[in-house]
Each structure stands twice: as C-alpha cells, then as structure tokens.
Amino acid sequence: MIFVLRIFAIAIFAIVTFIFGCGYCLLSPRNPKHVYTFGRLFSKMSRVLGIKLEFRYAEGAEKVGSAIYIANHQNTYDLFTVSGAVMPRTVTVGKKSLVWIPLFGQLYWITGNILIDRANRSKAVGTIGQVVDKIKQNKVSVWMFPEGTRSRGRGLLPFKTGAFHAAIGANVPVVPIVCSSTDHVRLNRWDNGVVIVEVMKPISTDGLHKEDVRSLSSRCHDDMAEKLAELNVEASERSKR
C-alpha cells in the first residue's frame, strides 16, 4: 500500500512540476536561477519517500562564487536527495538523450542545463570548452557527476576527467559534494532512515595546468571516497535509533 501511495504521489508531483515548471520557465527560458529553484523543490520529495534528509556545508562552501561542483551519482533517488545541494546560478551537465524523456527532458533543457553527446568524443571534448566559456561569460557554476554513470551500490566509481579539465580551464575551484548511500531506500518501507549530503571545502585550481588534471581528479576521488565511507557509517547508525 505504501508503495502504491508513493508512486501515485511521485507521479502527481512530476506531472504538475514538469507542466507548470515549463510554463514558468518560459518567462525567462534557460535562466540559471531555475536549476536552483527546482533542485530545492525536488529535494522536498525526500519526505514523501520516508527519508530524513540532512545537509551540511563546510566553511566557505556556500560563498565560493563560480565553481565546478562534483557529486557522487548513485541512482534515481539522487533527484530527490543531492539535488537539494544545488547552489544559486548553477547549471548541470547531462546526456543529450535526456531531452527525449517526456516532460522531464523538456524541463531539464529549458532550465538552462548543458547537454552533451557522450557517444561522440569530439563533441564531448568541445563541450568542455563550452562549459569553460559559460562559466567565464555568464559567471555561473557547473554541476557534474564525474563518475559518468550511476554507481548502483558499487561505491565511488573511477572519475572521468572532464570536470577537472573544465575547472582548470576556467580557473575556478572544485567543490566536492557527497551523499551517503541510498541503496537501502525502498518505496514499500515507511521509514527509510537518514541520508546526509555534505558540501565539502572548495579545492583551489590556482596555478594548475592541464598536466595536473589527473592528480586533481585523484585527490578529489580520495577525499570523496573517505567522506562517503564516513557518512555511510554515521547515517546507518542514526537510522537504527
């Protein structure tokens, strides 16, 4: 019964949000403020899923200016958890195929997000240049999932280098964001426990060049893997209380 009620609630929320959201965004199409607005809105649905969602911000993480935000990418529940950590004037980078998903794809595009063709390497590389230009010209931040795919319970997967090329190219800091595991979340369970999202300290790219991309990526991966393990232990213990 809980499963059915939640599916119904999510369906109603999605239809209303996507239809009215697209209409609202038509007033100022592809304005980066929309991603922040809808990210926060979607995270409110965590309550319907029985998730006690908690956000934490390291010192300086909320006033960093333009940046590349990188987050771990677990599953579909990211839409209702880590999305709440999106900062003002931040857009995301997603697969070009997303635009063909009914309602969601149209909302994703009109809110100003960046779509890339991952099947075409030359276009994807060119997109990194577009990301850099967008940051410099529009003074926005860009959110990326460096794993490139959902981890689905496999821990933090190896990182692709696009986010780090963009950060160094635009000379902006990298801000890691880690969400504790949501593998335990079940639609037919009333209480899905605690999920913690932490926005970590910015990592400066001052003085770095393209030769430093791998070391920057490794540093971010190690820091995020350590934080993920830490948050998983805490979230699990608190969920048992």
Give an account of the 3D structure.
- It catalyses: a 1-acyl-sn-glycero-3-phosphate + an acyl-CoA = a 1,2-diacyl-sn-glycero-3-phosphate + CoA.
- This protein has 241 residues and is an alpha/beta fold.
- The protein has one domain (1-240): Glycerol-3-phosphate (1)-acyltransferase (3-Layer(aba) Sandwich), CATH 3.40.1130.
- The chain is built from 6 helices and 7 strands; from the N terminus they run H-H-E-E-E-H-E-H-E-H-E-E-H.
- A 7-stranded mixed β-sheet has the order 1-7-6-2-5-3-4, with helices on both faces.
- Helix 1 (2-25) runs parallel beside helix 3 (104-110).
- It is globular, with a radius of gyration of 18 Å.
- The two termini are 25 Å apart.
Compact description:
This protein is an alpha/beta fold and 241 residues long. The chain has helices at residues 2-25, 33-43, 104-110, 121-138, 162-170, 213-239; strands at 52-57, 68-71, 90-95, 114-116, 141-144, 174-179, 194-199.
